[in-house]
Amino acid sequence: MIPGLVIEREVVIEAPAEVVWRIITEPDQISQWFADRVDLVVEPGAHGYMQFGDQGGPVVVETVDPPRRFSFRWNYPAGEEPLTGNSMLVEFTLTAEGAERTRLRVTESGHELRGWPDGEKQRYADEHREGWAEYLDRLASVLADRRPG
Amino acid sequence: MTTPADDELWSAIADPSRRRVLDLVVSNSDVSASWLADRVPFSRQAVAKHLVVLERAGLVSRRKRGREVVYQVQADRLDKATRAMAELAAQWDQRLAAIKRLAEAAHTTPAAPSC
Predict the structure, then answer these.
(1) Residue A82 to chain B, least CA–CA distance (Å)
(2) For B100, which of A13, A29, A135 is closest by C-beta distance?
(3) pLDDT, averaged in runs of 10, over chain B (115 residues)
(4) Domain count of chain B?
(5) Which strands make up the sheet holding A47-52, listed edge to edge?
(6) ipTM of the complex, rounded to two decimals
(7) Cys-Cys with A71: which of A63, A112, B14, B50 at CB 3.0–4.6 Å?
């Protein structure tokens, strides 16, 4: 785990990893938990599109490693190719915990940690075990304590 | 969705050294760069660079106090960042809950075999 990624959440699902994999990668399934309309081919480098209400945007598939890892980039400027510096990366990691149970973790991260050499990431992880949300929460509470009244 | 301004903010707090500087500014108002440099294990030049990034992200502001420049945290910006983070996390919690529902339903009632 790399702490400091923008968002990291997880859930335990009572179903095999292969079933969870289908839900997170098949367009007609994705449209049930994410975008309203999904045009996506699950192949590394494939360009797709996701529609949210009257808004939408392009996505590019990055990693496809069934049934373990799936990632895509989104939130990048129209007309540009998504790179580490201009997009958000969504990564799903599936870990089988027995035949009928899967731990699904999702991280959504900005560009800062992507493209770092692994050694740097490790240094970062060692030096800073506190995630973004925890960090901000803590700063906010320090600040609240300091405020008069 | 994030904005360029948010990106600056996330970048600003992604760096552990910068977090250390921000920690000190948050818990001690109106501190100078040299005061900070005495309390961190890196150079004064590094502290100055971190302060520039934090200021650009709107997390700290500076003012003159006599002959020295002192820094303070921008509480509103910090509050906004905390709220944005909580919102993003809540969105993913909802999506994961939906994935869980769909996967467990698909597992217990497998699709009818196709002919």
Answers:
(1) 14
(2) A13
(3) 60 80 91 95 94 93 94 88 81 95 88 53
(4) 1
(5) A7-13, A102-109, A88-96, A69-74, A55-65, A47-52, A37-39
(6) 0.76
(7) A63
